[in-house]
Amino acid sequence: MKGIVLAGGSGTRLFPLTLVTSKQLLAVYNKPMVYYPISVLMLAGIRDILIISTPSAVPVIENLLGDGSQLGLNLSYAVQDEPRGIAEAFLIGAGHVGGDSSALILGDNLFHGAGFPELLRDARESLDGCTLFGYPVTDPERYGIGEVDASGRLVSIEEKPAIPRSDNAITGLYFYDKDVVDIARGIRPSARGELEITDVNLEYLRQGRAKLVGLGRGHTWLDCGTYDSLLAASQYVQAVEKHQDERVACLEEIALRMGFIDAEACYRLGAGMGQSHYGRYLTEIAYAHD
Prior knowledge:
Number of helices: 11
Radius of gyration: 19 Å
Strand order of the largest sheet: 5-4-1-6-11-8-12
Mean pLDDT: 94
Shape: globular
Cofactor: Mg(2+)
Order of helices and strands: EEEHEHEHHEEHEEEEHHEEHHHH
Catalytic activity: dTTP + alpha-D-glucose 1-phosphate + H(+) = dTDP-alpha-D-glucose + diphosphate
GO biological process, one term: polysaccharide biosynthetic process
Distance between the termini: 29 Å
Number of strands: 13
Protein name: Glucose-1-phosphate thymidylyltransferase
Largest sheet: 7 strands, mixed
């Protein structure tokens, strides 16, 4: 399975913070925002990842992450010169995906929770068409909403419904089989000229090959695209790391735990960060792991 992080957009909701930097480079507590979606793909066992961003942001993100080899990853980069819909990621990334299945995640989404890595790996192994991830919200009229029947079968998808049939918001994480590029190429742009991911999902639903995996109690999903949600995400990560003695989206630790790198490589990454708390943590877990 190939991974795509769509980290484009102009970040206008976060002006003036994003007037001189990419939204995905803003801090969510102690890490750049882009670490969080990358961590999700890594937890799903995905190592071949394309990061799509704006012309000005791509060089900076590449300077931060390089080719990913220090994490046991293969990172590549592509430009989306202006926002033309989430589904355009599959046109930009068609060569990257090739004939493989793929996971697409939005660059400002944070996921965390007990058993989440196992849930991701189960979803990857059982993929048959399209798997979406739903999360209960109190304001479903603001989201794409997935409705399931009594047996848990996905029966409808509606974008920002005036009268929602469900409170299951479709999050910014999507798993697709090898047909997604062809399906994305076949959808028509919206009135705004965008390729809507909902149209891709609806095509899978029409084919009877779409399902919704619920993220319920014990899971957290946050979209970091506003001042309040960015602050809430930072406070959430701070609380988890300080009170549960657990690190959220620590890419080096995930790479070590997943077997992408060894303890020596993890130690070197930590030592390279000097006396920072983050660097000391990496050297400690590398020593304990070894």
